[in-house]
Specification:
There is one protein chain. It contains 3 helices and no strands. By secondary structure, the protein is an all-alpha fold. Helix 1 packs across helix 3.
Length: 68
């Protein structure tokens, strides 16, 4: 299995709610592949939080605009 496929499968485990420690202990893969999956997962989570923040700001601005 390629490193890309392994990374995708590891990210799926993380996305399903497994902790980073769980994935480290459950799966025997090369360290670099595991760390890449963790980096990608953290980046995805960061982007989701940022998107929610922007959506909240946009919703607030829309509510303010509809009052005037």
């Amino acid at each position: 299995m390629s490193a890309i496929q392994l990374t995708a499968q590891l990210r799926q485990l993380l996305d399903r709610g497994y902790s980073i420690d769980d994935v480290r202990n459950l799966v025997a893969v090369p360290h670099e592949v595991l760390e890449q999956a963790i980096r990608e997962h953290r980046l995805q989570e960061h982007n989701r939080r940022h998107d929610r923040l922007l959506q909240g700001q946009a919703d607030f601005a829309m509510r303010l605009g509809s009052r005037g």
